[in-house]
Design a protein that fits this description.
This protein is mainly alpha-helical and 293 residues long. Helix content is 75%, strand content 0%. The protein contains 13 helices and no strands. It starts with 14 loop residues before the first helix and ends with a helix. Helix 4 (83-114) runs antiparallel to helix 10 (209-224), helix 7 packs antiparallel against helix 10 (209-224) and helix 8 (183-191) packs across helix 9.
Length: 293
Protein backbone atom coordinates (compact mmCIF):
# COMPACT_ATOMS: atom_id res chain seq x y z
CA UNK A 1 0.00 0.00 0.00
CA UNK A 2 1.41 3.22 -0.99
CA UNK A 3 1.32 5.88 1.78
CA UNK A 4 3.28 8.53 0.07
CA UNK A 5 1.66 11.90 0.44
CA UNK A 6 1.60 14.36 -2.33
CA UNK A 7 3.47 17.46 -1.30
CA UNK A 8 2.02 20.80 -2.30
CA UNK A 9 4.14 22.97 -4.48
CA UNK A 10 4.40 26.51 -3.11
CA UNK A 11 4.71 29.03 -5.86
CA UNK A 12 6.63 32.06 -4.64
CA UNK A 13 4.92 35.42 -5.14
CA UNK A 14 6.34 37.60 -7.78
CA UNK A 15 7.46 41.13 -7.00
CA UNK A 16 4.38 42.51 -8.78
CA UNK A 17 1.99 40.40 -6.69
CA UNK A 18 3.70 41.46 -3.47
CA UNK A 19 3.43 45.12 -4.51
CA UNK A 20 -0.28 44.73 -5.33
CA UNK A 21 -0.92 43.00 -1.99
CA UNK A 22 0.88 45.75 -0.04
CA UNK A 23 -1.05 48.36 -2.03
CA UNK A 24 -4.36 46.64 -1.16
CA UNK A 25 -3.44 46.57 2.54
CA UNK A 26 -2.45 50.23 2.38
CA UNK A 27 -5.76 51.21 0.78
CA UNK A 28 -7.71 49.23 3.40
CA UNK A 29 -5.76 50.86 6.23
CA UNK A 30 -6.36 54.32 4.75
CA UNK A 31 -10.08 53.58 4.36
CA UNK A 32 -10.32 52.44 8.00
CA UNK A 33 -8.43 55.55 9.16
CA UNK A 34 -10.81 57.85 7.26
CA UNK A 35 -13.83 55.95 8.62
CA UNK A 36 -12.55 56.24 12.21
CA UNK A 37 -11.89 59.99 11.83
CA UNK A 38 -15.30 60.51 10.20
CA UNK A 39 -17.20 58.54 12.85
CA UNK A 40 -15.29 59.85 15.89
CA UNK A 41 -17.75 62.78 16.50
CA UNK A 42 -20.60 60.24 16.52
CA UNK A 43 -18.70 58.11 19.04
CA UNK A 44 -18.00 61.18 21.18
CA UNK A 45 -21.71 62.15 21.05
CA UNK A 46 -22.83 58.71 22.27
CA UNK A 47 -20.18 58.43 25.01
CA UNK A 48 -20.88 61.97 26.27
CA UNK A 49 -24.57 61.09 26.60
CA UNK A 50 -23.71 58.33 29.13
CA UNK A 51 -21.15 60.34 31.16
CA UNK A 52 -21.83 62.57 34.14
CA UNK A 53 -20.91 66.25 34.15
CA UNK A 54 -17.64 65.75 36.05
CA UNK A 55 -16.41 63.16 33.56
CA UNK A 56 -17.58 65.21 30.58
CA UNK A 57 -15.22 68.06 31.49
CA UNK A 58 -12.42 65.90 32.90
CA UNK A 59 -8.85 66.77 31.93
CA UNK A 60 -7.45 64.91 30.11
CA UNK A 61 -10.69 63.80 28.39
CA UNK A 62 -11.84 60.22 28.92
CA UNK A 63 -12.16 58.43 25.59
CA UNK A 64 -13.98 55.53 27.28
CA UNK A 65 -16.56 56.32 30.01
CA UNK A 66 -15.48 55.05 33.41
CA UNK A 67 -19.12 54.40 34.38
CA UNK A 68 -22.39 54.51 32.49
CA UNK A 69 -24.90 57.14 33.63
CA UNK A 70 -28.41 57.12 32.10
CA UNK A 71 -29.66 60.27 33.83
CA UNK A 72 -29.44 62.26 30.58
CA UNK A 73 -31.79 59.83 28.80
CA UNK A 74 -34.24 59.96 31.73
CA UNK A 75 -34.13 63.76 31.52
CA UNK A 76 -34.52 63.67 27.72
CA UNK A 77 -37.72 61.62 27.99
CA UNK A 78 -39.15 63.71 30.80
CA UNK A 79 -41.73 66.42 30.14
CA UNK A 80 -39.06 69.09 30.60
CA UNK A 81 -37.82 69.02 26.99
CA UNK A 82 -40.93 67.72 25.19
CA UNK A 83 -38.92 65.09 23.30
CA UNK A 84 -41.86 62.68 22.88
CA UNK A 85 -43.95 65.40 21.20
CA UNK A 86 -40.99 66.45 19.02
CA UNK A 87 -40.34 62.81 18.10
CA UNK A 88 -43.92 62.43 16.88
CA UNK A 89 -43.69 65.70 14.96
CA UNK A 90 -40.48 64.57 13.26
CA UNK A 91 -42.12 61.30 12.24
CA UNK A 92 -45.18 63.08 10.80
CA UNK A 93 -43.07 65.62 8.90
CA UNK A 94 -40.59 63.04 7.56
CA UNK A 95 -43.34 60.62 6.50
CA UNK A 96 -45.35 63.39 4.85
CA UNK A 97 -42.26 64.58 2.98
CA UNK A 98 -41.53 61.02 1.82
CA UNK A 99 -45.07 60.46 0.50
CA UNK A 100 -45.39 63.86 -1.22
CA UNK A 101 -41.91 63.56 -2.77
CA UNK A 102 -42.67 60.16 -4.30
CA UNK A 103 -46.14 61.24 -5.51
CA UNK A 104 -44.62 64.17 -7.42
CA UNK A 105 -41.17 62.82 -8.31
CA UNK A 106 -42.25 59.56 -9.97
CA UNK A 107 -44.52 61.09 -12.68
CA UNK A 108 -42.22 64.11 -13.03
CA UNK A 109 -39.17 61.88 -13.61
CA UNK A 110 -41.11 59.80 -16.14
CA UNK A 111 -42.17 62.94 -18.02
CA UNK A 112 -38.65 64.37 -18.07
CA UNK A 113 -37.20 61.04 -19.27
CA UNK A 114 -39.81 60.23 -21.94
CA UNK A 115 -40.86 63.63 -23.28
CA UNK A 116 -37.50 65.21 -23.86
CA UNK A 117 -38.04 68.72 -25.15
CA UNK A 118 -36.53 72.11 -24.54
CA UNK A 119 -38.88 72.57 -21.60
CA UNK A 120 -37.80 69.34 -19.90
CA UNK A 121 -34.13 70.20 -20.43
CA UNK A 122 -34.68 73.64 -18.92
CA UNK A 123 -36.50 71.97 -16.03
CA UNK A 124 -33.50 69.74 -15.30
CA UNK A 125 -31.17 72.76 -15.30
CA UNK A 126 -33.56 74.60 -12.97
CA UNK A 127 -33.75 71.63 -10.60
CA UNK A 128 -29.95 71.46 -10.48
CA UNK A 129 -29.70 75.17 -9.71
CA UNK A 130 -32.36 74.93 -6.97
CA UNK A 131 -30.30 72.25 -5.24
CA UNK A 132 -27.38 74.66 -4.98
CA UNK A 133 -29.34 77.36 -3.14
CA UNK A 134 -28.75 77.52 0.64
CA UNK A 135 -31.83 76.73 2.72
CA UNK A 136 -31.68 80.05 4.57
CA UNK A 137 -32.00 81.93 1.25
CA UNK A 138 -35.26 80.09 0.48
CA UNK A 139 -36.70 80.00 4.00
CA UNK A 140 -37.34 83.76 4.32
CA UNK A 141 -39.52 84.04 1.15
CA UNK A 142 -41.29 80.86 2.23
CA UNK A 143 -42.01 82.35 5.66
CA UNK A 144 -43.59 85.44 4.04
CA UNK A 145 -45.61 83.31 1.60
CA UNK A 146 -46.86 80.81 4.21
CA UNK A 147 -47.71 83.61 6.67
CA UNK A 148 -49.96 85.23 4.07
CA UNK A 149 -51.58 81.83 3.48
CA UNK A 150 -52.03 81.23 7.23
CA UNK A 151 -49.83 78.11 7.21
CA UNK A 152 -47.23 79.14 9.79
CA UNK A 153 -47.04 76.62 12.67
CA UNK A 154 -48.57 73.83 10.59
CA UNK A 155 -47.16 70.52 9.40
CA UNK A 156 -48.12 71.41 5.81
CA UNK A 157 -45.75 74.39 5.61
CA UNK A 158 -42.74 72.41 6.91
CA UNK A 159 -43.52 69.41 4.66
CA UNK A 160 -43.86 71.60 1.55
CA UNK A 161 -40.62 73.39 2.41
CA UNK A 162 -38.81 70.06 2.87
CA UNK A 163 -40.20 68.78 -0.44
CA UNK A 164 -38.63 71.80 -2.17
CA UNK A 165 -35.27 70.24 -1.19
CA UNK A 166 -36.01 66.55 -1.70
CA UNK A 167 -37.93 66.87 -4.99
CA UNK A 168 -35.04 68.10 -7.23
CA UNK A 169 -32.81 65.42 -5.73
CA UNK A 170 -35.46 62.75 -6.40
CA UNK A 171 -36.20 63.79 -9.99
CA UNK A 172 -32.52 63.99 -10.94
CA UNK A 173 -31.79 60.50 -9.53
CA UNK A 174 -34.98 58.79 -10.75
CA UNK A 175 -34.80 60.11 -14.32
CA UNK A 176 -32.04 57.68 -15.46
CA UNK A 177 -34.14 54.71 -14.28
CA UNK A 178 -37.11 55.73 -16.45
CA UNK A 179 -34.79 56.67 -19.31
CA UNK A 180 -33.22 53.21 -19.40
CA UNK A 181 -36.52 51.33 -19.09
CA UNK A 182 -37.27 49.55 -22.44
CA UNK A 183 -39.79 51.52 -24.45
CA UNK A 184 -40.96 48.28 -26.12
CA UNK A 185 -42.28 47.03 -22.77
CA UNK A 186 -44.38 50.17 -22.44
CA UNK A 187 -45.75 49.66 -25.95
CA UNK A 188 -46.69 46.07 -25.04
CA UNK A 189 -48.44 47.34 -21.92
CA UNK A 190 -50.42 49.83 -24.01
CA UNK A 191 -51.49 47.02 -26.37
CA UNK A 192 -52.76 45.15 -23.29
CA UNK A 193 -54.96 48.14 -22.46
CA UNK A 194 -52.89 49.82 -19.74
CA UNK A 195 -52.75 53.60 -19.57
CA UNK A 196 -49.63 55.62 -18.79
CA UNK A 197 -50.32 55.79 -15.04
CA UNK A 198 -51.14 52.07 -14.85
CA UNK A 199 -47.98 51.26 -16.79
CA UNK A 200 -45.88 53.30 -14.36
CA UNK A 201 -47.48 51.79 -11.24
CA UNK A 202 -47.84 48.15 -12.36
CA UNK A 203 -44.90 47.67 -14.76
CA UNK A 204 -42.14 50.25 -14.28
CA UNK A 205 -42.06 50.88 -10.52
CA UNK A 206 -41.67 47.17 -9.56
CA UNK A 207 -38.73 47.02 -11.99
CA UNK A 208 -36.98 50.12 -10.63
CA UNK A 209 -37.82 49.36 -6.98
CA UNK A 210 -34.22 49.92 -5.67
CA UNK A 211 -34.27 53.45 -7.05
CA UNK A 212 -37.70 54.22 -5.57
CA UNK A 213 -36.71 52.79 -2.16
CA UNK A 214 -33.46 54.77 -2.24
CA UNK A 215 -35.31 58.02 -3.04
CA UNK A 216 -37.90 57.34 -0.34
CA UNK A 217 -35.20 56.60 2.25
CA UNK A 218 -33.20 59.72 1.48
CA UNK A 219 -36.34 61.89 1.45
CA UNK A 220 -37.30 60.59 4.91
CA UNK A 221 -33.80 61.06 6.29
CA UNK A 222 -33.33 64.54 4.79
CA UNK A 223 -36.64 65.68 6.30
CA UNK A 224 -35.77 63.98 9.62
CA UNK A 225 -32.57 65.99 9.96
CA UNK A 226 -33.79 69.28 8.48
CA UNK A 227 -33.46 72.29 10.80
CA UNK A 228 -33.60 75.63 8.97
CA UNK A 229 -37.14 75.37 7.54
CA UNK A 230 -38.51 73.88 10.77
CA UNK A 231 -37.02 76.68 12.86
CA UNK A 232 -38.23 79.39 10.47
CA UNK A 233 -41.76 78.10 9.88
CA UNK A 234 -42.64 76.92 13.39
CA UNK A 235 -42.66 79.21 16.40
CA UNK A 236 -44.83 77.00 18.60
CA UNK A 237 -43.64 73.84 20.30
CA UNK A 238 -46.59 71.65 19.29
CA UNK A 239 -45.35 71.37 15.65
CA UNK A 240 -41.59 71.62 16.14
CA UNK A 241 -39.53 68.51 15.22
CA UNK A 242 -36.63 66.99 17.15
CA UNK A 243 -33.97 69.14 15.50
CA UNK A 244 -35.63 72.31 16.82
CA UNK A 245 -36.20 70.65 20.20
CA UNK A 246 -32.47 69.98 20.28
CA UNK A 247 -31.86 73.68 19.76
CA UNK A 248 -33.99 74.43 22.84
CA UNK A 249 -31.44 72.60 25.00
CA UNK A 250 -28.80 75.22 24.16
CA UNK A 251 -29.34 77.82 26.85
CA UNK A 252 -28.37 81.46 26.89
CA UNK A 253 -26.14 81.13 29.95
CA UNK A 254 -25.09 77.50 29.71
CA UNK A 255 -25.71 74.17 28.03
CA UNK A 256 -26.30 70.78 29.60
CA UNK A 257 -24.06 68.86 27.21
CA UNK A 258 -25.02 65.42 28.53
CA UNK A 259 -28.74 66.00 27.91
CA UNK A 260 -27.95 67.62 24.56
CA UNK A 261 -25.92 64.60 23.43
CA UNK A 262 -28.65 62.21 24.64
CA UNK A 263 -31.27 63.95 22.48
CA UNK A 264 -28.80 64.10 19.56
CA UNK A 265 -28.28 60.35 19.89
CA UNK A 266 -32.05 59.82 19.78
CA UNK A 267 -32.19 61.88 16.57
CA UNK A 268 -29.40 59.82 14.98
CA UNK A 269 -30.85 56.45 16.00
CA UNK A 270 -33.64 56.23 13.35
CA UNK A 271 -31.11 57.25 10.68
CA UNK A 272 -28.86 54.36 11.66
CA UNK A 273 -31.74 51.85 11.82
CA UNK A 274 -33.16 52.85 8.44
CA UNK A 275 -29.77 52.72 6.76
CA UNK A 276 -28.97 49.27 8.18
CA UNK A 277 -32.41 47.94 7.23
CA UNK A 278 -32.39 49.36 3.69
CA UNK A 279 -28.67 49.46 2.89
CA UNK A 280 -29.10 46.86 0.14
CA UNK A 281 -31.62 49.05 -1.68
CA UNK A 282 -29.75 52.30 -0.96
CA UNK A 283 -26.42 51.02 -2.29
CA UNK A 284 -28.09 49.38 -5.30
CA UNK A 285 -30.10 52.53 -6.00
CA UNK A 286 -27.09 54.84 -5.83
CA UNK A 287 -24.99 52.50 -7.98
CA UNK A 288 -27.83 52.10 -10.49
CA UNK A 289 -28.43 55.85 -10.68
CA UNK A 290 -24.74 56.49 -11.24
CA UNK A 291 -24.39 53.96 -14.07
CA UNK A 292 -27.72 54.49 -15.85
CA UNK A 293 -27.33 58.22 -16.38
Amino acid sequence: MMTASRSRTVIPESAGEKRRRRLAWGKSALAWLIAVIYLFPVYWMVTTSVKNKAETFAQPPHLIPQALHWDSYRAAFSDEYGVWLALGNSFIIATGTLVLTLLIAVPASYAVARYRTGISTSMMVLLTVVQLLPAIAVSIPMFVMFRQMGLINTYASIIIADVSVTLPFAVILLRPYFKQFPYEVEEAAKLDGLGVLQTIVRIIIPTIRPGVVMIGSFSFLMAWGEFTFALTLSTQQHVQPLTVALNRLIGQYGTNWNDLMAVATLIALPVLIIFIALQRYIVAGLAGGATKG
